[in-house]
Write a structure and sequence with these properties.
single chain, alpha/beta, Zincin-like, 3-stranded mixed β-sheet, binds zinc ion, UTP_pyrophosphatase-like, YgjP-like_metallopeptidase
Length: 226
């Protein structure tokens, strides 16, 4: 029901902005937190506050400037939603649910993104004697993807993109690190030449990880065939 209502509303309003604040700072949610000192965006008075069961605070403000736009952003643990002045309360309820979920998803993605990058950086420094996130010719990105089912990792050196199959997410760290390291080397060496393996050998658990992945693939094939 709520979902239906929210979808219908999309015809009338669009979500103009989903901005995120950083995840640092005070973890203590506070109601009516210095509305005066706040930026232009949240200068509107707080209309009401949801205290959700997970204790995340959602402040709703009505804005004369927001004619058809609903905006939501994070202010530390607090979510601020700005809605048009005339929007009905029950419509807002539907939106708040949707917006908070979307912001949560995004926060989660960003944090796992950051962790991945940190891991890759460490590996790069430790075994390649350089931070490829700084030294590569184009900015390097690394992320989990769900649409990659035949390869554990892939890399496009030209645009610095490294993708890891989400199917590895529950595997031991040494396995994930081995795949990350494999893809990092591809930023430097595109093929699997002897030079590639020379660098790969620097990762001490390379053979062990390979055995793990081979075993996993073998078992998968074995068990899915009927
Ligand atoms: Zn490769």
């Amino acid at each position: 029901m709520v979902e239906h209502a929210a979808r219908e509303l999309h015809h009338f309003y669009h979500l103009s902005r989903l901005a995120l604040s950083t995840m640092t700072g005070s973890n203590q949610p506070s109601l009516f937190d210095n509305p005066d000192s706040a930026s232009e965006v949240n200068a509107d008075p707080v209309e009401f506050v949801y205290q959700r069961t997970d204790l995340a605070t959602v402040e709703v403000r009505r804005s004369k400037r927001a004619k058809r736009n609903i905006t939501a952003y994070r202010d530390n643990e607090k979510t601020v939603v700005t809605v048009p002045t005339r929007m009905a309360k029950r419509d807002i309820d539907a939106y708040v649910e949707e917006l908070v979920t979307r912001l949560d998803d995004r926060d989660e993605r960003l944090s796992s993104q950051k962790l991945l990058e940190q891991r890759a950086r460490k590996l790069s420094l430790k075994y390649l004697d350089q931070d490829l996130f700084r030294t590569h010719s184009v900015p390097v990105t690394i992320r989990w993807v769900t649409n990659q089912n035949s390869r554990w990792g892939s890399c496009t050196p030209a645009d610095g993109a490294i993708r890891l199959s989400h199917r590895m997410q529950r595997m031991p760290n040494f396995v994930i690190d081995s795949v990350i390291f494999h893809e990092l080397i591809h930023l430097l060496i595109t093929d699997h030449s002897p030079a590639f393996y020379e660098l790969m050998q620097r990762y001490p658990e390379h053979e062990k990880a390979k055995a793990y992945l081979d075993g996993y693939s073998h078992a998968q094939q074995h068990f899915t065939a009927e």
